[in-house]
Amino acid sequence: MISRTGGGPDHPLIDKVAADATDTDRLTGLTEGADTLFTTAAPPYHLWPEQFPALSASLLATARRTGVAYVMLGNLYGYGPVGGPLTPDLPLTATGRKGRTRARIWEEAAASGVKVTEVRAAQFYGAGAVSVFSLMVQRQVMEGRLVLVPQELDVPHSYSAIGDTARTLVAASRDERAYGRAWHVPTATLSVRELAGRLAGLAGAPRPRVEEMTERDLTLLAFTEPFWAELHEVLTKPGHPFVVDFSDTEKILGVGATPVDDVLAEVI
C-alpha cells in the first residue's frame, strides 16, 4: 500500500510504503512484479484540474512500463448533468473543471493500450467514508444537532458504501470482461432526509432536523475554505433525482449493494 505518509492498516499481508505517486521511476520500481495496480488516490478537491493530470500520467506510465493490469477508482462527475439514470455507457460530456478533469483521465487511459478499467462510485457512505454525508450529516444526526447540507432534502440520491466500492474494485480486477470499459459501484438510492432518518433510528438519536444550504451559504463559506466553492459545479439540477444504474455490475461482476441498515450499523 503506497501513500505519501506510508500509512494504512496494520496487517501481516500488507506492506506499507511511503512514496509520491507522481515520481514515476519510484512508482515503477514499487510496482514491478505486481499483477494489478489499483489507484484510489486524488489531490485536494479544489486542486483537481491543476494536480490530477500529473498524478494520472504517472500512474498510467507506470502501468505501461510494468505491464500490470490497471484498475482506477473514479466517480460520476465526468457525465455532467444527465436527465435519467446514469449508465456506464453514457458519453462523458461534463463541461465543469472537475468533471472534465475526471473525463480526460479515463479517456487518456482508455486510449493508451494499457489493460485498464475504471470503477465509478457515487457519494460515499459507511464507516470511514469521507463525503458530504459523513462530514455534514452523520455526526450531527447522532449528536442530535441541526443538519445543514448542500443537497436537496427530499430528492432521491444514490450513495455507494465504501465496502461495496472496494468489493467492486477487486471483482473488476479478477474478471477479464471488466477491462476496456467502466463499471458503476452498487448504490442505495434514497433522499438525504431518509438516509439521515434511518441513521437516527438505528442510533437511537432524535428525529433529525435537516435544512438545505443555499447557493449564498456556499458562496459565503468559500471565503473561508476553497472546498465550498467547488460544490457549485457538482450540485444536481433542482428537482432532478440522481440515480445510478449498476445492473451490469450485479449481473457480470457479481457485486450488489449492501443493505442500507447494515452499512449504517457499521457507522454507529
UniProtKB/TrEMBL annotation:
InterPro entries in UniProt: NAD(P)-bd_dom_sf (IPR036291)
Protein name listed in UniProt: NAD-dependent epimerase
Organism per entry: Streptomyces capoamus
Species classification: Bacteria, Bacillati, Actinomycetota, Actinomycetes, Kitasatosporales
